Amino acid sequence: MSVASPVRAYTQPLDQQDGSPLLHLPSPMFPERKPGAVLAEGLRMSPKKLSDNKPSDDQSPGAPVPGSPFGHLPVMLEEVIDIFAGVPEGVVLDATVGGGGHALALLNAFTYLRVVGVDHDGEAVAAATSVLAPFGARATVVRARFDALGTVLDELGVGLLSGAIFDLGVSSPQLDRPERGFSYRFDGPLDMRMDRSQAMTAANVVNETTEAQLARLFVIHGETSFARRIAAAIVSARPLTTTKQLADVVSSAVPAAARRRGHPAKRVFQALRATVNSELEVLPLAIDAALERLAPGGRIVVLAYHSGEDRAVKQRLVYAATGGCDCPPGLPCVCGAVPVVRLLNRGARKPSAEEVAANPRAESARLRAAEALPLDERRPR
Asked: What's the whole-model pTM score?
């Protein structure tokens, strides 16, 4: 095992920001800090157990991979493989490697590709290292923050990328362990840290954030109808220390009719997890870093599982596809914007009906993809 300090790369031993306030919202916990300044704590993939045939309260649409201690059957696998067919020989970055499901499929499908997998969760790194070990030098797994992609690739001697994949969300091993505090289905501490060495937990956010900041946080993540009521209830009930306490407070703040549409704590927990791990702050930065590395003909695929993630992904890919052009639609571009990618589909692709029938949790997945333009096509529109 080789170690690439300081990002701790585990190698198998066997053989432009546009300043958009929507994308770069200041941290609700630290409004004085510059957008994007909060360190990334990782964006998880989303595995699930096929034995559980009910839609989850959490974002976890995958299923176990045989032999993987972390467990992951990636969502929209056939679509991902189709998109990467024909990319130039070289390295694919799996920026959210999790249990190694997508990486495993890519290595099996394309013998001319290597994979560098990145994850901030030590358990995921260990699992992916084990799963990908039979591929020897073709697979490298690195433990690093999500905003350290450039450093990881530089230390491994990787320049341009043949592709990059981001499978966002949170994993079943994290959700199913009460001590991690990610799910309201189990009683556990209010933790939610992807990297358990960091100081800030969900308990800090719940108990130290103002009512106005909590409400804004919930609005950002989709809880628009009852955000203020939920925030007020949380503040009145503080201190809160467990997931069950928080889930009960949220439920009590929401009318019974709304509770019948699904557990009201879903988006609250989602918002807290994203805040603790700086997810929506770091996602645009990481996508831009990957886009800058794409070789001509290289492709990027992003799977998102809720509207905040998908909105951020869409805006960064559209920005790259237009060069940030702000000229009026329908008129010739006079601003000198230079596109660097072309979008591979209009809008987001969704899982097939067959996949959703077999795995209802996959229903929320949204796939967006783009291809890096040849250098001679990168000119003002």
From this structure: 0.78
